[in-house]
Amino acid sequence: MLAVMTIDQRGSRHDVDRVEQLLAELSTHAAAGDGVALRFERTVGDEVQGVLTDPELLLEITLRCTRSQHWTVGIGMGSIRTPIPDSTRKASGPAFENARDAVNRAKGGPEAIAVQGPDPISSRYAEAVLRTMATVLRRRSSAGWQAVDLMAQGRTQAETAEVLGISKQAVSQRLHAAWWWHEQALRPVAVHLLTEAGQ
Question: Which residue, 30, 92, 105, is CA-closest to 60?
């Protein structure tokens, strides 16, 4: 799988520039060579681009951007012109064109995610699942995020309850309200569909 991510700041005219902060987060989360073909860079204005080869990493970064609600994400599948350069800004090809079309289309919807690739059907399926997951994350409360973040660190519900100072049943209720189990069920589906879209 080869995917170009074009990540554009939402409402940048009325907000601070968040690109450097995002790049710092991405540099620790997505180091070059670890599922990253070309590292994330600021390309133009308030936009960031990178090239990924790992669908799980692609999903994780997409969901992180979705959670903050500051970013529009366009995912472009396809090929890159060879030889592949050492910088995202120097790269080009159908995957970049698809990412551009995707991010422009994503700006029109509340989920702010779009996928575009050579196979429109698999791209549409991947996009539908990502948008569903984005809706789940967007509606999650801060209390829900507290429980979800602790569970994501590998803690059990009992350990999460102890950290939060609440009962295990209360943790279960928070996870239920946060649709955490739905998110977990959709993750492998999203990875599979992103892989298919990138074939």
Answer: 30
Please choose, from the candidates 77, 99, 95, 106, the residue with its C-alpha nearest in 3D space to the C-alpha of residue 10.
106
User: Cα angle vertex 49, ends 45, 54, to 5°?
Assistant: 165
Q: Are 2 and 51 in contact (CB under 8 A)?
A: yes
CATH placement of domain 3-136: 3.30.70
Q: What is the pLDDT of residues 10-54, one digit of tens each?
A: 876 667 888 999 999 888 776 656 788 999 999 988 899 999 999
Q: What is the pTM of this model?
A: 0.91
Nearest CA to 55 out of 80, 37, 79 is that of 37
Q: Which residues of 17-39 are buried (b: 16+ CB within 10 A; e: fewer)?
A: ebbeebbeebeeebeeeebbbbb
Q: Environment class of residue 145 by beta-carbon count within 10 Å: exposed (0-12), middle (13-18) or buried (19+)?
A: middle
* Spans of all domains in the chain: 3-136, 142-178
Q: What is the pLDDT of residues 89-116, one digit of tens each?
A: 999 999 999 999 999 999 978 889 999 9
Q: Count each helix (H run) and each strand (E run) in the chain, helices first.
A: 8, 5
How do beta strands 3-9 and 47-52 pair? antiparallel
How far apart are alpha carbons 172 and 99 in whole angstroms? 38
